């Protein structure tokens, strides 16, 4: 049993294309039609083997195992052992690291999408404020208009202690 730094570097480097291929095939638009076909066959098939075979093209985690197997056949990469055990250790290690990469990438996309959505909301709010200011400048404010909502004060529901009420309905 020997483990050197080149094997460790190889583990982290080889996991990158495995994660890339698995992500691309299972999630990206370029493979949508074959993936939809596999999903339909998986959902409508009566045979267990056929259903599971077509399912692997719709599951990122499952598909990464097959991509890893292909990568091991092509590269003959082994980890820790120089015999068949090295392939087994490499297989599960590569699947693990590739799926960590996939999880990190998914989390990064969620964060980016959330930030983009928050920026869009702020931009829309700023635009609406600019429009309200322009309208006030255009029409002038005679004191009868709420500047925030640009609704005449007479049209707004009165509120007392945060609850709407009709004039004369409350006895103090």
Features:
5 helices; 172 residues; two-stranded antiparallel sheet; mainly alpha
Describe it for me?
This protein has 172 residues and is mainly α. It has helices at residues 5-27, 32-44, 48-55, 60-75, 84-139; strands at residues 145-146, 151-152, 159-160, 163-164. 12% of the residues are buried. A two-stranded antiparallel sheet has the order 1-2. A two-stranded antiparallel sheet has the order 3-4. α1 packs across α5. It has a domain at 5-113. The model has no long low-confidence stretch (mean pLDDT 80). It contains 5 helices and 4 strands, in the order αααααββββ. Helix content is 67%, strand content 5%.
**Can you list the strand order of the major beta sheet?**
1-2
Number of strand elements: 4
Task: Write down the secondary-structure element order.
Answer: HHHHHEEEE
Q: Please state the average pLDDT score.
A: 80
SS field, number of helical segments: 5
Helix content: 55-70%
Head-to-tail CA distance between termini: 87 Å
Integer-rounded radius of gyration: 30 Å
As a percent range, the share of strand residues is under 5%
Low-confidence stretches: none
Main sheet makeup: 2 strands, antiparallel
Please tell me what the overall shape is. Answer: elongated
Task: Give me the secondary-structure category.
Answer: mainly alpha
Please provide a brief summary of the model.
The protein is mostly helical. It has helices spanning 5-27, 32-44, 48-55, 60-75, 84-139; strands spanning 145-146, 151-152, 159-160, 163-164. The strands form two sheets. A two-stranded antiparallel sheet has the order 1-2. Strands 3-4 form a two-stranded antiparallel ribbon.
């Amino acid at each position: 049993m020997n483990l050197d730094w080149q094997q460790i570097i190889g583990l982290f480097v080889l996991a990158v294309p495995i994660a890339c291929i698995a992500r691309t095939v299972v999630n990206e638009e370029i493979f949508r039609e074959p993936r939809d076909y596999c999903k339909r066959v998986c959902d409508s098939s009566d045979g267990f083997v056929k259903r599971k075979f077509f399912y692997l093209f719709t599951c990122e985690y499952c598909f990464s195992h097959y991509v890893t197997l292909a990568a091991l056949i092509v590269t003959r990469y082994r980890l820790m052992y120089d015999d068949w055990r090295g392939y087994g250790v490499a297989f599960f290690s590569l699947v693990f690291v590739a799926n960590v990469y996939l999880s990190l990438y998914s989390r990064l996309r969620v964060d980016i999408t959330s930030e983009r959505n928050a920026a869009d909301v702020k931009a829309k709010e700023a635009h609406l404020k600019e429009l309200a200011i322009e309208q006030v400048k255009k029409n002038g404010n005679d004191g009868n208009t709420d500047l925030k909502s640009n609704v005449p004060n007479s049209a707004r529901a009165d509120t007392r202690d945060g609850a709407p009420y009709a004039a004369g309905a409350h006895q103090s």
